[in-house]
Specification:
Layout (H helix, E strand, L loop, with lengths): L3 E2 L3 E4 L6 H10 L1 H5 L16 H17 L3 E7 L2 E12 L5 E8 L8 H16 L4 E6 L4 H9 L3 E12 L2 E11 H15 L2
Parallel strand pairs: 5-6
Antiparallel strand pairs: 1-2, 2-3, 3-4, 4-5, 6-8, 7-8
């Protein structure tokens, strides 16, 4: 199991044993989070309420890690689940790219845990996985998420119209990216500011 360490955060894959913590955080943050997330597929079990569905989700993420197609991590603050950061759609060949999504417990918002987690993930993406590009897409009105990429000075690439279905609506997203060359130029600065 891959664990990644920051200054104040630990990133590690979630397991079925994390269900109670996951359910408590997700229940408490339902209004804070679901406005930014895709709708649950009708007829599918709810991973927040169904322990078996959560276990299946964890197993699927483990399989993605084994295949090298995705890497999901719980964000732990002081030993407590505080959110998630997920590297998904890892593509090799000439693309060498992946997408990142993240969320944080509202009680931890504004403390810099997500920027720190992203820098830890960037180090993994570029130094360990040797990818060339990491991308993040954010709904324009999601000021909290946009503040994260602003803090890290990630490059904005424009708006993708009706890019993802979020809470039942096809939403525009602002796209951000960082390449291996940019990471090489900024690695020491980012790690020094957020991780070491």
């Amino acid at each position: 199991m891959t664990a990644l360490f920051g200054r104040r955060v630990l990133l590690r894959p979630l397991t079925a044993n994390d269900f109670s913590s996951w359910r408590e955080v997700r229940r408490r943050n339902v209004d804070w989070l679901t406005q930014w997330e895709p709708s649950r597929v009708p007829g599918q079990p709810d991973v927040v309420e169904d322990r078996d569905a959560f276990a299946v989700r964890c197993t699927a993420r483990q399989r993605e890690r084994q295949l090298g197609t995705g890497y999901g991590f719980g964000i732990f603050v002081d030993g407590e689940l505080g959110g998630e950061v997920n590297l998904s759609s890892v593509q090799r060949g000439p693309f060498q790219s992946a997408y990142v999504g993240y969320w944080i417990d509202e009680k931890h918002a504004g403390n810099g845990y997500i920027p720190e987690a992203l820098v830890v993930l960037l180090r993994f993406v570029f130094d360990d996985l040797k990818l060339h590009r990491m991308q993040i897409a954010i709904i324009p009105r999601n000021a909290n998420s946009r503040r994260v990429v602003d803090k890290l000075k990630l490059r904005e690439e424009g708006v993708a119209l009706r890019y993802l279905e979020i809470n039942g609506i096809w939403e525009d997203h602002v796209r951000y990216a960082i390449t291996a060359e940019e990471w090489e130029d900024r690695r020491d600065e980012l790690i020094g500011e957020w991780v070491d």
